[in-house]
Amino acid sequence: MIRSRRFLVIIAAAGLLLAAGLFFLWTNLDSIVKNAIERYGSQATGTSVRVDRVSIRPAQGKGAIEALTVANPPGYSAPHILSLGGISVRIVPRTIASNPLVIDDIRVASPLVVYEMNDAGAANVDVLRKNLAAGQPASTGDRGRKGVEKRLRIKHLVIENAQAEIHVAALGGKPRTVALSRIEMTDIGGKNGAPPEEVAKQIVSAILAEVSTEVGQAGAERLLEKGLERLLRRK
To answer: For the whole model, what pTM was predicted?
Structure first.
């Protein structure tokens, strides 16, 4: 009888701890997600990633992220290389405390990429792509008590109405703006999910690849050559 009571007490205590943990998770989810985006995003890009506000509604399976920015690499004038406008998210509520966390759909509307080419002909986009390729290993703090790495799976992502501002230092004057094609990605992270920094790399790399393609078609390299020719004529 005494053993049965002790067993019930243990179960009750465990239930209270679980309820407290879930309450903490749900009431602090916005700040947890915000900190995770900034931490893993900065780790993936090698520059500062910041978010103004995150709003997650677990019961509704919805969320929103506002004003996500990626800082320019050192040596470039614009404060940000990438600014994402409104981001809407649809999540699978039952996976919030699971591994992997599953996101059904992400929609990114009207992001802006600032493409800068300095006097030496080096583009900030290329610098950031090298940072992504170099990567940073996940720290031991990213693992749970049993050494299980946190993972993320995104089933569907769409980025649309994006624009790129082209700044060529040798030309000066106003930047040239080009529209970017719609980007659609599926099953990011795979069935078992991937570390958050790897997911961030895949998404940012897709955006930068599209920028490089569109800028190439817009003739940024030819613009640079003309700018350098002008500089040589002045000497």
So the answer is: 0.78
